[in-house]
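Researcher: Go.
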Amino acid sequence: MLPAAALAVPFLPDSDAEVLERLPWTANDAAETLARVRRAQLARDPRNLALALDAARADIAHARAAGDPRYLGYAQAALAPWDAPQPPAAVQVLRATIRQNLHDFDGALDDLQDALARDPSNAQAWLTQAMIQQTRGDYAEARRSCTRVLATARRSASLRLAAVTCISSVASFAGDARGSYATLREALRASDGAPEDHLWPLTVSADIAARLGDVAHARADYEAALALAPRDGVVRIAYADLLLDQHEPAAVLALLDGDTANDGALLRLALAEDALGTPARAAHVAELRERFAAAKLRGDGRHLREEARFTLALLHDPAAALTLAERDWAVQREPEDARVLLEAALAAGDGATVARVRGWLAARHVEDVRLPTARGDA
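Model: Structure:
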């Protein structure tokens, strides 16, 4: 599963004059009805590029918000008539976004680099590339990509806020978490963009605050994000992790409200139920076993971090968790990935892995009070 900062990246208008449809972040019947209407229209006119782009953007947004990968398939189907090595730039960037969400980072970067070679001013491509580079722990390259977003910032208020969010997010992982948080908060205060433009910056701001150990501000930012998108799965899962770290399992149950369709939410529910000793734990652990087994059969490795966490915390199998966490670490290297790898290695008594990961974090000046290295675990 991608981290919240990467999952919540918005679709950007090219200028204040361009109005992108405000995509329905809330997973509900109205959003599903609208999606069905779009797909029906597209079935009648499959080569209507504008309609296909609208449908694909909506389906990607719904997949992110609801944690439902079926919508990535719908987005792929909408773009299928332009499945070529060099499709229209907007199609290629959306295809890269789908590949990013499927953890095909190499394929996504290939698409983005080709799109940028044809149009170096494509802010959406630079932003998506930056978040993939950040996810991989390639902070220097991510910073360069964010700088290219900043170069387009004069075109719209949305771009200005997105550029500052991008730069702040990357810098927060590379030794400047506190300064990045202050910069991002000031940008949010000064922003005159649409309220919906604040969802991603608030999610990033909350994440930085949590890594700094500033729980009060992290809570406030997550609550503000949820006020904009009450059922957004990305925000709710990230907030649930904060509450679990604060030993508030009952609050997690209230926040997630029985959301078992989303795999990430189901894991947090099971962790909260485990802490509370509630009867629902057994059924949810069994369901997670089945889902991870099914993903393995499909060759789907998007949830390796979640599976490693599940295996360590709920199955109490450090050796198996360590194997999964190592596979995850080979693909993505956010602090959340480092945390589960360190916790599994510590539980398995693998000092060499602990030293290797701590060395990687130290070399990049990663700040995160939640990491075992910061908590003083031996």
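Model: The mean pLDDT is 91.
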